[in-house]
Design a protein that fits this description.
The chain is mainly β. The chain has one domain: Sandwich (Jelly Rolls), CATH 2.60.120.10.
Length: 275
């Protein structure tokens, strides 16, 4: 588990490229036969990846959380971004196809990840603190109906899937879903916004080796950028915008946690407010 401390926006103004990446980029996430995790002091979320090989990988943080087991006081949202795999929760097994989601509530002690039939599954997860146990629930992408957003003139036609949220899979504070841009579209979350009451994280997907996303961050009047590749995640503090433009179309998994549970709680930034 790698520790990521909170950073004041005044500090970020003076960061070099490498300093920005060391604080806000989460990579690597998917190393075969390994559990990779990042503990953020932004709303105490844990962001991680599991890439099981021939054997199961158990969800375990050792003594880092100072609890008896990982989900003793936490909930978790999981998406399979690789080939078919399974998540075992106690005596129950949930098979996840590519881009299927699973929510696991507080109090579940035995959780493990596995690949199926010689395939290579990759599980991305975000965990937040919890105060109540909600039922474990799977959401298959093929059974979900997305919101269709954007227009060709703005190069941002996309499908937005809200999965873990107030009107979907219930949780304490975690919200999670995926956005997929249509071909020949490359902008996400522009015009930009901030939500000073919760953090957010993006995992970028479906990028070819030579394709990149220029992820914009920082206070609206002090923007910076990170060059991000496939299977890399970016942590966005509450004070930061989070937007991106790709050299090709792509998908990204978004996850939020914090003060409230209102998806539409966003402070929009006018275009002339960006610098």
């Amino acid at each position: 588990m790698e520790n990521r401390y909170s950073v004041h926006p005044e500090q970020v103004k003076r960061f070099t490229t490498e300093e920005l990446r060391s604080h806000f980029l989460m990579d690597p996430l998917f190393t075969e036969n390994k559990l990779s995790m990042y503990y953020s002091h932004e709303d105490r979320v844990v962001i991680g990846g599991a890439a099981p090989g021939q054997s199961e990988l158990k969800l375990d943080a050792g003594d880092f959380l100072k609890t008896d087991f990982f989900l003793e006081r936490r909930e978790i949202g999981i998406i399979n971004v690789g080939q078919p795999g399974a998540v075992r929760v106690g005596d129950d097994e949930y098979v996840l196809q590519t881009k299927d989601f699973l929510y696991i509530g507080m109090g579940n002690q035995d959780v493990s990840f596995s690949s199926l039939n010689g395939e290579k599954a990759k599980f991305y997860f975000v965990s937040a603190c919890a105060h109540k146990s909600y039922p474990t629930q799977k959401a298959a992408l093929a059974e979900l109906t997305p919101d269709r957003l954007g227009d060709d003139a703005a190069s941002n036609v996309r499908s937005l899937y809200k999965v873990i949220h107030q009107d979907g899979i219930k949780s304490c504070q975690l919200m999670m879903g995926i956005t997929m841009l249509d071909q020949n579209n490359n902008w996400n979350t522009m015009p930009a916004h901030v939500h000073d009451r919760r953090m957010e994280a993006y995992l970028y997907l479906d990028l070819e080796k030579d394709s990149k996303v220029f992820h914009f961050m920082g206070q609206p009047d002090e923007t910076r950028h990170l060059v991000v590749g496939n299977d890399q995640a970016v942590l966005s503090p509450a004070w930061s915008i989070h937007s991106g433009a790709g050299t090709s179309n792509y998908s990204f998994v978004w996850a939020m946690a914090g003060e409230n549970y209102t998806f539409t709680d966003m402070d929009l930034v006018p275009m002339d407010g960006l610098k």
